UniProtKB/TrEMBL annotation:
<comment type="function">
    <text>Catalyzes the reversible phosphorolytic breakdown of the N-glycosidic bond in the beta-(deoxy)ribonucleoside molecules, with the formation of the corresponding free purine bases and pentose-1-phosphate.</text>
</comment>
<feature type="active site" description="Proton donor">
    <location>
        <position position="205"/>
    </location>
</feature>
<keyword id="KW-0328">Glycosyltransferase</keyword>
<comment type="similarity">
    <text>Belongs to the PNP/UDP phosphorylase family.</text>
</comment>
<dbReference type="GO" id="GO:0006152">
    <property type="term" value="P:purine nucleoside catabolic process"/>
</dbReference>
<feature type="binding site">
    <location>
        <position position="4"/>
    </location>
    <ligand>
        <name>a purine D-ribonucleoside</name>
    </ligand>
</feature>
<feature type="binding site" description="in other chain">
    <location>
        <begin position="87"/>
        <end position="90"/>
    </location>
    <ligand>
        <name>phosphate</name>
    </ligand>
</feature>
<feature type="binding site" description="in other chain">
    <location>
        <position position="20"/>
    </location>
    <ligand>
        <name>phosphate</name>
    </ligand>
</feature>
<dbReference type="GO" id="GO:0004850">
    <property type="term" value="F:uridine phosphorylase activity"/>
</dbReference>
<dbReference type="InterPro" id="IPR035994">
    <property type="entry name" value="Nucleoside_phosphorylase_sf"/>
</dbReference>
<feature type="binding site" description="in other chain">
    <location>
        <begin position="204"/>
        <end position="205"/>
    </location>
    <ligand>
        <name>a purine D-ribonucleoside</name>
    </ligand>
</feature>
<dbReference type="Pfam" id="PF01048">
    <property type="entry name" value="PNP_UDP_1"/>
</dbReference>
<keyword id="KW-0808">Transferase</keyword>
<dbReference type="InterPro" id="IPR004402">
    <property type="entry name" value="DeoD-type"/>
</dbReference>
<dbReference type="InterPro" id="IPR000845">
    <property type="entry name" value="Nucleoside_phosphorylase_d"/>
</dbReference>
<protein>
    <recommendedName>
        <fullName>Purine nucleoside phosphorylase DeoD-type</fullName>
        <ecNumber>2.4.2.1</ecNumber>
    </recommendedName>
</protein>
<dbReference type="GO" id="GO:0004731">
    <property type="term" value="F:purine-nucleoside phosphorylase activity"/>
</dbReference>
Length: 236
């Protein structure tokens, strides 16, 4: 147990999905898991373990932003022995070719966060996904006929930029596909502790074209994304 998690040793499967929203963690457990069991409710950051296609899997809400996610990921790896972590979330689009409902598989994650910056001496560390998880997610998205893009994601500590799109500077010109708030910290910790990690996001609103997803499409798209992530996690 930790100050943030009252799960016991063995309560988590070796593969864990990481939505930010606690209610989305609850929805994933109740919608997809067989025999779902609540294993953590500290601060209402809910965690569950169950089975998917006969294999053990867990889901743990990570909260909003990299500092919050870093706490849960550090403890899942070092206290609970988790080996595979897959963030499932939504993101904003920074490239017009990415349409609403498309998946972005974050091959790499740029960031403005001090969680990554300044911690590697003279070097800028490049946080990247586990290749096997990335390849598996791309394959499963293709099998389901889902549109996806694999490439660079921005993990920003700022949600509301005072300068609007100008706050993203040259990143869209360099092929960054979308913006969210967690992937870079996830990949950095996975690299530090030698485990596997991947971020899969559904693009729900494009900052370039101003397209937005409606409530019904959002729910359908999240269901498709979670099924891909679960299939990847249990094969992981």
């Amino acid at each position: 147990m930790t100050p943030h998690n009252h799960a016991k040793a063995g309560d988590y499967a070796e593969a864990v999905l990481l939505p930010g929203d606690p209610l989305r963690a609850k929805w994933i457990a109740e919608t997809f898991f067989d025999d779902a069991k609540l294993v953590n409710s500290v601060r209402n950051c809910l965690g569950y373990t169950g089975t998917w296609k006969g294999k053990s899997v867990s889901v743990q809400a990570s909260g909003m932003g990299q500092p919050s996610l870093a706490i849960y990921v550090h403890e899942l790896i070092n206290v609970y022995g988790v080996k595979t972590l897959i963030r499932v979330g939504t993101c904003g689009g920074l490239n017009a070719k990415v349409k609403v409902r498309d998946l972005i598989l974050a091959q790499g994650a740029s960031t403005d966060s001090s969680i990554v910056k300044g911690r590697f001496g003279a070097f800028n560390f490049a946080p990247i996904a586990d290749f096997e998880l990335l390849r598996s997610a791309a394959s499963k998205a293709e099998e389901k006929g889902m549109r996806y893009h694999a490439g660079n994601m921005l993990s920003s500590d700022i949600f509301y930029h005072a300068d609007g799109m100008a706050g993203y500077d040259k990143l869209p010109e360099h092929g960054v596909l979308g913006v969210e708030m967690e992937a870079a910290a996830l990949y950095t910790l996975a690299a530090r502790f030698g485990v596997k990690a991947l971020t899969i996001c559904t693009m729900t609103d494009c900052l370039i074209t101003k397209e937005e997803i409606d409530a019904e499409q959002r729910q359908t798209s999240l269901r498709d994304m979670v099924e891909v992530a679960l299939d990847v996690a249990v094969e992981g």
